[in-house]
């Protein structure tokens, strides 16, 4: 379906890393450039990657494109009065044949008035396939085929979102999944601490208490953690980036029998601008967003990917000869950035 592509600004190599993912910029076979240290794509019985790969892919040759069934005009029934503009460029070197998955696009629950995504290999348009998985997470896949020489890649994504989107549809299986411990959220080892800190609290009182405790317990220190750091690691060091704040909040909530999950987001108002990470907790029959960093207004955020922890939401993953990320740029703007009460319940829209 045709789009009105936004001009893509070319960028040079810059500091590589993400608040949301804790990347060190490196990538190895079976690892994500931005979050996962989980092995060759196997993330357990409920695997975001596995679920996505079971979906039918839509192949596009080179040109910017929209998600299947996505409208390129307004009139989608969304709430008017809020416009968010998203832009990212990623660039890097592919050492040899491999498959790359990018998770940078707004979730499929949104209906952008404009949207484009393109990938080039050594300046030539690449084949890109889109896969849509749980909670509307969209993977964009491209590959350097067997026998190909090393290549430079560039990915550009732009979108304009007018109004709000409904939250992803609830699935009853989500609740037991998001009560379990996971790779980065060792809730099964935090039961005693969670009881000592939050025993007797439930619902919104619990989520508020956990959010503020994590904010006070962890110092926000860019570059202080890497792709392998888990909740237990940051509990000891008492410092981390946004993904670590989200992981600790999720772990404590699960330890108190409250379903909680990890969400990678675009965050207008975040400074410096990065991909951001927050938590969602299931309270009063809905998934409410929690941001223990207090770095950006939650109502402005745009969902990218949702999962058990950062292993399910890496913005760039490589499977094969290896990938070196050399630069990226992220920008998210909103027409009107308003303040909010930290304790007010917020649902991502």
Give the CA-based shape.
globular
What strand order characterises the main sheet?
1-16-4-8-7-2
Class computed from helices, strands and strand pairing: alpha+beta
* Biggest sheet layout: 6 strands, antiparallel
Distance N to C terminus: 24 Å
The figure for the number of domains is: 2
Walkthrough of the structure:
With 349 residues, this protein is of the alpha+beta class. The protein folds into two domains: 31-165 and 313-333, Immunoglobulin-like (Sandwich), CATH 2.60.40.2250; 174-311, C8orf32 fold. 15% of the residues lie in helices and 30% in strands. It has helices at residues 48-53, 174-177, 191-198, 203-217, 231-237, 242-255, and strands spanning 31-32, 58-61, 83-94, 98-102, 114-121, 124-125, 127-132, 138-144, 151-162, 219-220, 239-240, 260-266, 276-283, 286-290, 302-307, 316-320, 323-334. A six-stranded antiparallel β-sheet has the order 1-16-4-8-7-2, with no helix packed on it. The chain has a five-stranded antiparallel β-sheet with strand order 6-5-9-3-17, with no helix packed on it. A hairpin with a 5-residue loop joins strand 7 (127-132) and strand 8 (138-144). Helix 4 crosses helix 6 (242-255) and helix 5 packs across helix 6 (242-255). It is globular and about 60 Å long. The model is unreliable at 1-17 and 21-80 (pLDDT under 50). This is Transglutaminase. Pfam families: Transglut_core. Residues 1-41 are annotated as: Disordered. Residues 1-11, 20-29 have a biased composition (Polar residues).
